[in-house]
Design a protein that fits this description.
The protein is of the alpha/beta class. The chain has ten helices and 17 strands. Residues 182-196 and 198-207 have low confidence and may be disordered.
Length: 368
């Protein structure tokens, strides 16, 4: 059976279900508009560890454990794990998975890693290579500044085009079917269901509904010659525009077929560029577009300049805002498009431009 759709997309013909999601966030994220919707808020940015990197890994490990527990599963039930982060050799993911002891593939898409991980996990489940798979990613403000720009102690000034790397981690359990085994055993009788965070919906209300991953679109790297490490939105907007346009073409759909087209972390600068680039191709998504980087923080009260960024930005918004809206039936269909800027210390210091990537995941609420 041919699962390929159009130029660069995959349409899943058999059910791939998103069974559970988790969100573990830092203090600043907890002070934002989605703070009360997170599964766990951690006041200590080092999470009790000796350094920023080890702290980020602990965020990711905790997110994985929570998602698996919410799905009513054990570590042994997870056949494969796909995870990514921003650090060299993806040390946040690898050290977290060292503790979880799940067969592991590292995936890298910069801040688009949640889209890459979910897509890879969905393909594995759909192909029958795993009955349950874990997709996860993390980022951390301090470890990212140290990795890509300047250590915090340097005290450098940030321009208004800069975004604030989100501290936290998100994880998702994917499977082929909904069954009693997939229901959250550890919280039975508490009125909470696998996908909902912080009591978003009672079990009785969602007994006959679930979220399907209907398809995914693998992004093409786009480079418009940007080299400013403090303007990630401009670097990523061309890739977001290309992936969204191609996904809609491949699936033969229109923007209004979706309740929301959510980009990862373009922020205020990138959002405007995205709308303009798509308009050049006679496509208007302004009526359904949302950027996770503009949802994670309160721009009026929190000094985050252009918005949020990092792998955890789109991951936390997906877990805390988008999926609950699907569970409640407020939205029927979402195109989730995490965005990433593909740079490193080496390329930035050598004067290279910053390519962008975006991966799209088609999420849809369905009935049993």
């Amino acid at each position: 059976m041919d699962y390929m759709a159009g130029k660069q997309s995959i349409r899943f013909k058999k059910p791939v279900c998103l069974l559970a999601a988790s969100s573990v966030a830092g203090k600043k994220e907890g002070e934002g508009p989605l703070g009360e919707k997170m599964d766990l808020l951690v006041e200590d940015p080092m999470y009790g560890q000796a350094n920023w990197e080890a702290g980020e890994s602990q965020f990711l490990r905790e997110a994985g454990e929570i998602a698996i527990r919410k799905a009513g599963l054990s570590m042994e039930d997870i056949r494969l794990a796909f995870s990514g982060d921003l650090l060299g050799q993806m040390i946040s993911s690898s050290f977290a998975m060292r503790s979880l002891q799940i067969p592991f593939y590292g995936v890298y898409g910069a801040c688009a890693s949640s889209g890459a991980a979910i897509s890879a996990a969905a393909m594995a489940v759909h192909a029958g290579y795993a009955d349950h798979a874990l997709a996860a990613c993390s980022s951390h403000f301090a470890s990212a500044e140290k990795e890509f720009r300047f250590p915090l102690g340097y005290g450098n000034q940030r321009p208004k085009s800069a975004t604030w790397t989100v501290t936290g981690a998100g994880a998702y359990v994917l499977g082929t079917v909904i069954s009693d085994k997939n229901r959250r055993k550890n919280e039975a009788g508490k009125g909470r269901v696998p996908g909902a965070g912080n009591g978003e919906k009672t079990k009785s209300e969602t007994e006959k509904s679930y979220i399907l991953i209907k398809g995914c679109t693998t992004g093409v790297i786009k480079d418009y010659g940007m080299s400013d490490v403090y303007n990630m939105g401009a670097c990523m907007a061309p890739a977001a525009a290309d992936t969204i346009y191609q996904a809609l073409q491949d699936f033969q759909m229109e923007p209004e077929d979706f309740d929301c087209i959510a980009t990862g972390d373009l922020g205020e600068v990138g959002k405007d560029l995205l709308i303009s680039l798509l308009a050049d191709n006679h496509m208007d998504i302004s009526g359904v577009h949302m950027d996770c980087g503009m949802e994670i923080y309160d721009s009026d009260k929190q000094d985050t300049h252009a918005g949020g960024s990092g792998c955890a930005c789109s991951a936390l918004v997906l877990s805390a805002l988008i999926l609950p809206k699907l569970w409640r039936g407020e939205w029927k269909r979402v195109l989730f498009v995490p965005t990433g800027a593909l740079l490193s210390q080496v390329t930035a210091n050598e004067g290279e431009t910053i390519p962008g990537i975006a991966h799209a995941v088609w999420l849809e609420r369905s009935q049993q």
